[in-house]
Specification:
The protein is 29% helix and 30% strand. It is an alpha/beta fold. The chain has one domain: Rossmann fold (3-Layer(aba) Sandwich). Strand 2 and strand 3 form a beta hairpin. Helix 1 crosses helix 6. It binds cytidine-5'-triphosphate. Cytidine-5'-triphosphate binds next to helix 4, strand 9 and helix 5.
Length: 211
């Protein structure tokens, strides 16, 4: 069985020394990659910049931008399961500067942004030949967590979504609490170390694929 995952933040250049990014540590995605490898999956992890070591037994591909992340995922397919754990920047600077921007020269105009590709939605919309059998997203929310996550599962076209309350210390922290949402129902996994949450999710993926 093959699994492809994304994890970590993306980094979107403004100029050679500045970028837009977010607070994702990559811990939950790396833990899930490791848990799937421990169950015998052949795992490719496409990771944005993180401070973590490559997980043991996992082919790790390092990227920076959302567009590089999508290209690396497409190269890593086909797979039985795709899991989008990364906190992808929805927007990137429209015209990154080749030289360091100077406030006096560029004025204080707003940074012009353009939309990034949605990796999860792109993979979920692949034709039946190319689409992984199971496509799973994460929904990082700070409020109305379950409602937003339910809507996101439908909007993104994925099979499962894992709702993740990031209003507290989950982002960057060692623990997580999630709700697994599938077409069959919802299951809450109580607060636990990210490695434990990862093992529980990996077991459910293996069971769903008959692995
Ligand atoms: N995702 C992705 N590509 C993007 C944006 C998000 O693959 N450009 C994936 C994430 O990896 C995650 C899911 O989509 O699995 C939901 O990400 P999230 O940041 O919670 O949602 P957004 O699409 O950014 O929606 P919103 O900002 O409205 O909450």
């Amino acid at each position: 069985m093959r699994a492809v995952l994304t994890a970590g933040p993306t980094l979107e250049p403004i100029d050679p020394v500045r970028f837009l990014s977010n607070r994702s540590s990559g811990k939950q995605g790396y833990a899930l990659a490791e848990a799937l490898a421990a169950l015998g999956f052949d795992v490719t992890l496409v990771s944005g910049p993180t401070a973590l070591n490559d997980p043991p037994g996992v082919a790790t591909v390092r990227v920076e931008t959302a567009r590089e992340m999508l290209a690396a995922v497409e190269r890593a397919l086909p797979a039985d399961v795709f899991i989008a754990v990364a906190a992808v920047a929805d927007w990137r600077p429209a015209e990154p500067s080749a030289i360091k921007l100077k406030l006096d020269k560029s004025g204080h105009g707003a940074l012009k942004l353009t939309e990034n590709p949605d990796i999860l939605q792109t993979i979920a919309a692949l034709g039946p030949e190319a689409r992984p059998r199971l496509v799973i997203g994460f929904a990082a929310e700070t409020h109305d967590v379950l409602d937003h996550a339910r809507a996101k599962r439908v909007r993104k076209g994925c099979d499962w979504i894992i709702a993740n309350d990031v209003s507290g210390a989950a982002m960057g922290g060692a623990d997580n609490a999630v709700t697994l949402m599938t077409p069959e129902g919802e299951e809450s996994l109580a607060q636990a170390p990210k490695a434990e949450i990862a093992r529980a999710i990996a077991e459910r993926i293996a069971a769903a694929l008959g692995a």
